[in-house]
Amino acid sequence: MTSRLVQTLAGLRDRKSKALIAYIMAGDPTLQDTERLVLELEQAGADVIELGVPFSDPIADGPVIQQAAERALRSGTSLRKILTMVKTLRSKTQIPLVLMAYYNTIHAFGPERFCREAVAAGVDGLIVPDMPPDEAGPLEEPAAETGLQLIFLLAPTSTKERRSYVVRRSQGFVYYVSLTGITGAKLSNLADVRANVEKIRKISAIPVAVGFGVATPGDAAKVAAIADGVIVGSAIVKQIAAHQQNSGMVAHVGSFVKSIKAAMTSVSSSASR
Description:
single chain, nine-stranded parallel sheet
């Protein structure tokens, strides 16, 4: 059976539209808020949602997402509770859901058990930022058996051989990291991003999504002109942090994401004319 993630991205490609992949930290500020945010983000135009699994030492993340992880852990969020929330969400939405989790969390849960229970709950894909494909052995077999799609990161410093290797192993989409560094850094050299995305596209049958550094609707529009998908994380998490004491937090975040999707759609529309 074709996964929700593959179907969604293929449908967007057929329509010459670009995917907005929105990242939020599960449990920030609470899991109840996360559930409401997922539904709001879908209404605002997100095509895929990445749910961060909070971890005490998130090495790939900048201060915005680190602080979100701290808030989520303080609110009692765990991987088990996130899977329960996903199961509840599946009665309300079929939007593709991808977990982003550090391997320690999965190792503690048990890789086989994790893959089985994640898919049963309704998770479509998994990104493990501290696990390159060379080290993904413990996850690959249980993921393949259950249909959980493993999405790998590709850095701008990757060699031709490395690009080919990562593309071969990635499922769903290739996650191209637009810059060397941590999440929340500033998007700078779009010419390099364009050149590298073109190199990946020549060897990839699956979509290429670009993340790290997309902070504004203008950034999203520029990246949408280059890639198949735009991943926005820290900018959304920042909005959650700024408005978490406000009863209108969910609507405010939805409005921000709507502005990003509108900027991306204008690029898709002009490209197809």
